[in-house]
Specification:
The protein is an alpha+beta fold. It contains four helices and 15 strands. The structure holds magnesium ion (2 copies).
Length: about 260
């Protein structure tokens, strides 16, 4: 069952989503060569808790971090650790925050300093375009296939590999709920979405093939051919004529949260 959220639930989801957006903005200022992913994780946890939320991914299915940080050929679920960011790295921050039992989930890809290649730079632009195309298909009565089809069209246009094993999902009183929202599909196929449903759309696109595998840490997913990967995700509320992004990025940090 795909839950239709009440106004009260939606307000909590809006707060959780806003904190996720703010956390992205907060962390972005620290994405410099030399910082470790563990330090970023610590900063994220501190910030999320200061804003009255908990970290959705902390301990989720046993995850040993507060947020997921994946670099270059790592697609998703990277564990924060002693790895230091380098100039040109593609860093994916996947952040979840929970406010009074309701979650927000958003991943974004960043380049540390200057990109190593033009291809890396365009990978990010194109994957973000794929996310926005997927969101563009959303309205009351759309299907998950409509969304996947729109994402797939953009990925194919740019000849990017679409990760198929991992998908978007419903969001609410748990981070991962029904339905699955794949990044490929056929129009008018799949579950129908209605006003008041909340989902995360999250294309993961690779410069090379779509194939992936899991590292021995049993978390980190990497591309099979070592090519770089990008990940963009928003949690959205389905509305009558479209959607409302709950994990908006045009949020303003308070002065005290701005570095230096
Ligand atoms: Mg996520
Ligand atoms: Mg997600």
């Amino acid at each position: 069952m795909i839950v239709v959220r009440t106004e009260e639930e939606i307000n909590k989801l809006r707060i959780a989503g806003k904190v996720v957006g703010l956390t992205h903005k907060y962390l972005e200022q620290f994405l410099k060569p030399g910082i470790t992913t563990k330090e970023l994780d610590r900063l994220a946890k501190e910030f999320i808790e200061k804003k009255g939320c908990t970290c959705s991914f902390e301990g989720l299915y046993g995850f040993p971090g507060s947020i997921c940080i994946s670099i270059n050929n790592e697609v998703v679920h990277g564990i924060p650790g002693n790895r230091k960011l380098k100039e040109g790295d593609i860093v994916k921050l996947d952040i979840g925050a929970c406010y009074e039992g309701y979650h927000g989930d958003s991943a974004w890809s960043y380049i540390v300093g200057k990109p190593n290649t033009k291809k890396d730079e365009s990978l990010l632009k194109e994957t973000e375009e794929a996310l926005m195309a997927g969101l563009g298909a959303i309205h009351n009565g759309c299907t998950t296939g409509d969304i996947g089809h729109s994402v797939e069209k953009v990925a194919k246009k740019y000849n990017l590999g679409i990760v198929r094993e991992l998908v978007g999902h419903g969001v609410g009183d748990k981070v991962h709920l029904e339905p699955d929202v794949p990044n490929y599909g056929k129009e008018r196929k799949g579950p129908v979405l209605h006003t008041g449903n909340v989902i995360a759309v999250e294309p993961m696109l690779n410069l090379g093939s779509r194939d992936i595998y899991m590292l021995e840490d049993e978390w980190t997913i990497v591309t099979d051919d070592d090519s770089n990967s990008a990940h963009f995700e928003h949690t959205v509320l389905i509305t009558e004529n479209g959607y409302e992004i709950l994990t908006r990025r045009d949020v303003e940090l308070e002065e005290e949260d701005k570095k230096n």
